[in-house]
Structure formats: C-alpha cells, structure tokens
Specification:
46 residues
C-alpha cells in the first residue's frame, strides 16, 4: 500500500514539475518575442 501511494505521488509530482517547466519556458519565449517586436516598432518610428 505504501509503495502504491509513493508511486502515485512520484508520477503526479513528476508530471506537475514537467508541466510547470513547460509553462515557464513558453512564458519566457513569449516575453522575448514581445521585446523583439517592441524594438522593431521603435526602430520604424525613428
């Protein structure tokens, strides 16, 4: 029984960790893209 609880926790913990890392990576890529677009917009205005 303890092994089953451990395995379920291990799987859920791993899945939530991977999901969190993916969401952070997506957010970082989006911010970088927004910065590039802002720089292009500012260059066109000058």
């Amino acid at each position: 029984m303890k092994l089953l609880i451990f395995l379920i926790g291990f799987i859920l913990g791993g899945a939530s960790g991977i999901m969190t890392m993916c969401l952070v990576q997506i957010n970082r890529d989006t911010e970088e893209q927004l910065r590039r677009e802002e720089v292009k917009k500012n260059e066109n205005q000058c």
